[in-house]
Write a structure and sequence with these properties.
The protein has 1002 residues and is α+β, with helices and mostly antiparallel strands. Helices cover 40% and strands 15% of the residues. Strand 19 and strand 20 form a beta hairpin. Helix 13 packs antiparallel against helix 14. Bound molecules: zinc ion.
Length: 1002
């Protein structure tokens, strides 16, 4: 069999592919200058952003820095544009060759929805006083002209140009010198610019690609990066097709398609098998290193695509695809050999997996070609479903059939070296634990700890907090159905005349009138139609309905082919898609980044919350020198534990320096006012991890570590991805962290609260609880919360709009719960927000001007138009807490509550804290009413006839008498007793957090 040659072809073209990717990142650089925003904000200026290079003095040397690539790679005579500045001048036009491919990538990334005719969309512009960057979910982030980020200052612009020049100089050096295989150099060059901490990523993320509402939600980076990824993959495809690629075709912009490459690893299996936390975090490191190797291969070595999505289990990259009409007679172009790529790539990543001793095979999939990224979710789902079976394909690992020693307790595959010690892991599993320790000792984890003993709070308790936003339906575009890019009545109001004729749409019945209008036009295609050509710039260039429909509907929804639906369906889809926000690749990329950034920002705040303590020893470590009187020899990198008084002590022995590093919560050993010497001469009885033998340590002296390990944050992030955030915290800090998360979610997602729910689980546990039991409990919680993935019906009980905010009061039909939600309905510039805050309603009729109907029949209504009695559909935000006082607790059913109940439960404790005269009085009152409840309830907790009312009356009397509460406060307590919120609050605060009431405010 002949060797598969195409990877080598790409490698020979690496400098070309990466240069063109860089051109993709930079093709809209002119928008990064403040003048671009000023001009779009209506201020007089002759700034032409497509000529930003010429306007510099001296001119920016764009051609000079890039011309080498033209000389080095001959390609076809039609490939390169006349001058390389055409890439920054003409990227929105339609040309042949490489320029045509950039135009294709640019058009796909920015999305068709932006392509509004400037005259009819003028009213959507923002003026210079209000030039806002918004989040992808409508939350105003920054007024870019009033409060400019560094990039938009003169200094920032100059700095950017300097950095771009450095980037291009280094590119030329790498591309043109004698080390074309300096993979590390290429990788660093790319990572420094667009990697997670890249300077270009940071700069371009701070400003806009498009200033009009509501497309001010996508940053310059999102669009540039995704356009560059698509451009790069398209060029890689052209290189692979070789001589048969139709360089001279002017249809490249419209006909180019892409595939998606998905690489996955069944990370959940590693987590489920972990015996100790180090097994999981160590495996996580191995998996992260695997994914980094994959990125190096795809993004730099082959330079065939770029990362478009990543979580802990899967990575998705752009990949070349065949153009339209592939497989039909007369198709111009060569064969991409996708099947060969699939097997070659699988072989490569299998090699990486074997190098890392991974016990399960990695997944590799290449999608069908398409002109959108909405298939991405399906690709990821497919990968996950396949990987749910650990050995979904044949996978042999070295040492798995060895008969020496016990089978390893972690991987259950290989054998350990010991035939007596059942706890001893095999070498690779042991190495993963050690590797993580090494990295920590080198300070590579920043200030976060890796030790649960350092996390444990004053009561020796820890919390695993898990959170998720229901982000997946956003990535495939389904939850965008409620968001508008224009509201029909607003468009009608601002465009009373179209092409010198009165706008034919009836303003009193906008939606139906437009739907009927479009339906009436489907018989023949009229490219001069005044209505349709005012809604979409591209319409006038189309030749028939079907190709227009392909771009507006099929490209963006992943289904609903023209041929599969009747005229009503076609009209409904066109009406919907022409006004709805669309899942453009740039926007999907932004959803992913934003979900992850939300958790990252929370993690930063959690670090602060978890470290706040009156006792400064909470976050400090000491180095302990043993006295000569200490017994025996100590083993390097071994952890030793014992007790000092009531407090647990854990130490790590370091052989090189013959000392111990504390790895426990020192605030439990030392008072704030005590100095480090207070530990001198104390004697500790210590046991090594997994050993029964006791040794004595006499402390000779203590010192503060001078390296990176002196101060820590008592936080262990276990996972942070767009789909899941898991973190270990001191239990006493967990409540404040959850409070903060709820507050942040309410602030940032207020406009989409009904369709982007926050789900929170807290597993509280004593420090010594086995990690496997804890992680098992967390997974159960996550599964149970995920299972509630249907919307619930709630009835509107009240709706009032005042000062730009709607207060919506809704009641659930099934749970008798009540929810008060406030939703901003005004934009920062004073205009009404007609883009984001729509709710799905049960009503099937369009009744109010802003109402609209999805083609599947669902009607959406602006939140301010809701009336009492309306039924709305809400994806619920939920919370659940578990206290694992035993490992078996994880098998008991969960009590899942609405997220607002968490806040009520916390408020209730504050109220009790303020009013209860003493802890004894509170305990007494509570046990008395619990006792009586049991008497009035049957075995399954069902009330005897009239029991509940009688019991609540009894509770009222007890609260009144024993706690001395009166009035509204008393009624709140009684109501909370009735819906068991009081049980939760008292259990959580008194039994689990061991809190005491402060004794009343007398
Ligand atoms: Zn093992």
């Amino acid at each position: 069999m002949t060797r598969f040659q195409l990877p080598d072809t790409l490698r020979q073209h690496r400098p070309l592919l990466l240069t063109l990717e860089a051109i993709g990142w930079l093709h809209m650089t002119g928008k990064a200058k403040v003048d671009f925003l000023r001009r779009h904000g209506g201020q007089k200026s002759d700034y032409e952003y497509e000529k930003w290079d010429e306007l510099e003095n001296p001119p920016f040397p764009w051609n000079d820095r890039l011309n080498w690539v033209k000389d080095k790679f001959a390609l076809d005579g039609n490939a390169f544009p006349a001058t390389l500045t055409e890439f920054i001048r003409k990227y929105t036009k339609r040309d042949k060759g490489l320029l045509g491919l950039l135009q294709a990538g640019h058009a796909m990334a920015s999305g068709i929805e932006k392509n509004l005719p400037s005259a009819t969309a003028k009213y959507l512009g923002q003026d210079a006083a209000h030039m806002w960057l918004s989040s992808a979910f409508g939350h105003p982030v920054r007024n870019l002209l009033a409060d400019p980020p560094e990039l938009l200052t003169d200094v920032g612009w100059k700095r950017l140009l300097g950095q771009i020049e450095d980037l291009l100089t280094e590119l030329q050096r790498l591309g043109n010198n004698s080390f074309p295989n300096d993979l590390y150099g290429w990788w660093r060059w790319r990572e420094d610019a667009v990697g997670p901490e890249g300077w270009l990523r940071k700069a371009f993320t701070s400003t806009l690609a498009e200033t009009r509402l509501p497309n001010n939600d996508i940053t310059l980076f999102d669009q540039s990066y995704v356009a560059a990824a698509l451009f790069k993959s398209a060029v890689a495809g052209a290189v692979l097709e070789g001589n048969s690629f139709p360089w001279s075709s002017d249809g490249l912009k419209q006909q180019t398609r892409w595939r998606l490459l998905t690489i996955g690893i069944g990370a959940d299996h590693y987590e489920a098998r972990a015996v100790k936390i180090g097994d999981w975090t160590g495996a996580r490191l191995a998996l992260d290193e695997f994914f980094t190797k994959v990125r190096k291969l795809v993004e730099v070595d082959l330079a065939i695509g770029s990362l478009l999505y990543a979580d802990g289990e899967a990575c998705v990259f752009s990949f070349p695809g065949e153009r339209f009409d592939h497989g039909e007679q007369g198709y111009q172009g060569g064969d991409l050999k996708i099947a060969d790529w699939q097997s070659w790539l699988t072989e490569q990543i299998d090699g990486y997996a074997r190098d890392a001793n991974l016990e399960m095979p990695p997944y590799c999939g290449i999608s069908e070609p398409s002109r959108s990224l909405v298939r991405m979710t399906a690709e990821i789902r497919n990968a996950r479903e396949t990987m749910a079976v650990p050995l979904f394909r044949n996978w042999q690992i070295p040492g798995q059939d060895s008969s020496d020693g016990h089978v390893c307790p972690v991987c259950h595959v290989r054998s350990s070296r010991s035939s007596t010690d059942k706890q001893m892991p095999c070498d690779p599993c042991k190495n993963r634990r050690t590797h993580r320790l090494d990295m920590w000792l080198q300070g590579k984890f920043g200030s976060d700890t890796i030790w649960i003993d350092e996390i444990a709070d004053a009561n020796d308790r820890v919390a695993l907090v898990t959170m998720s936003l229901d982000i997946v339906p956003w990535l495939d575009g389904t939850r965008l159905d409620a968001l508008r890019t224009q509201a029909i009545p607003e468009w009608r109001k601002f465009n009373p005349v179209l092409k010198n004729q009165p706008n034919p749409i009836d303003p009193s019945t906008c939606f139906d009138s437009l739907l009927q209008y479009i339906k009436g036009k489907l018989q023949s295609f009229d490219k001069d139609d005044p209505v349709l050509s005012s809604l979409q710039e591209g319409y006038q260039h189309e030749i028939d309905w079907q190709s227009f429909f392909t771009k507006i509907v099929e490209d963006r929804t992943g289904s609903h082919q023209w041929g599969d639906i009747d005229e009503n369906g076609r009209a409904a889809w066109l009406t919907h898609q022409l006004f709805c926000k669309l899942a453009s690749p740039g926007r999907i990329y932004r959803f992913w980044r934003q979900a992850e950034d939300f958790f990252k920002a929370l993690l930063d705040e959690f670090r602060d919350i978890a470290s706040a303590d009156q006792n400064c020893w909470r976050v400090r470590r000491l180095v302990i020198k043993p006295d000569n009187g200490s017994s025996g020899s100590w083993e390097g990198r071994q952890t030793y534990s014992g007790r000092y008084g009531d407090a647990p002590v854990s130490l790590l022995y370091r052989e090189q320096t013959n000392d111990f590093l504390t790895i426990c919560n020192l605030a439990r050993l030392m008072k704030a006012e005590q100095g480090k010497d207070s530990l001198c001469e104390i004697k500790l009885e210590l046991k090594a991890d997994d050993s029964v033998e006791t040794k004595q340590l006499v402390v000779h002296s203590t010192a503060e570590d001078t390296g990176a390990l002196d101060i820590y944050h008592p936080v262990i992030p276990l996972e942070l991805s767009p789909v899941r955030f898991r973190v270990l915290l001191p239990l006493e800090a967990a409540s404040a962290c959850v409070d903060r998360a709820v507050e942040a979610w309410r602030g940032q997602f207020a406009r989409v609260w009904d369709r982007l729910p926050l789900r929170v689980g807290v597993v509280a546990f004593p420090r010594m609880m086995p990690f496997q039991a804890v992680i098992d409990a967390a997974r159960t919680i996550e599964d149970d919360l995920d299972r509630i993935n249907k919307s619930q019906t709630w009835r509107v009980a009240g709706c009032e709009t005042r000062d730009g905010v709607t207060a919506l009061n809704i009641k659930s039909l099934d749970y008798r719960q009540e929810l008060l939600q406030t939703i901003p309905v005004r934009l920062p510039d004073g205009r009404e927000d007609v883009f984001y805050p729509y709710l799905a309603v049960e009503d099937r009729d369009v009744r109010i001007p802003l109402d609209f109907r999805h083609p599947d029949g669902r009607v959406f209504r602006h939140v301010k138009d809701l009336r009492s009695g309306d039924c709305v559909f809400v994806y619920p935000s939920l919370v659940t807490t578990v206290f694992m006082n035993s490992a078996a607790r994880r098998f008991e059913p969960l009590d899942i509550r609405s997220l607002t109940d968490w806040l009520r439960m916390r408020d209730l404790w504050r109220l009790i804290d303020r009013h209860a005269p003493s802890q004894t009085a509170l305990h007494g009152a509570w046990s008395e009413i619990i006792e009586r409840r049991e008497a009035w309830q049957g075995p399954e907790g069902t009330w005897l006839e009239g029991g509940k009312t009688a019991w609540l009356d009894f509770a009222r009397a007890v609260f009144h008498e024993r706690l001395g509460v009166r009035g509204a406060c008393l009624e709140t307590l009684v109501a909370a007793a009735g819906d068991r919120l009081l049980d939760w609050s008292l259990e959580w605060h008194m039994s689990i957090l061991k809190k005491q009431v402060s004794g009343g405010d007398r």
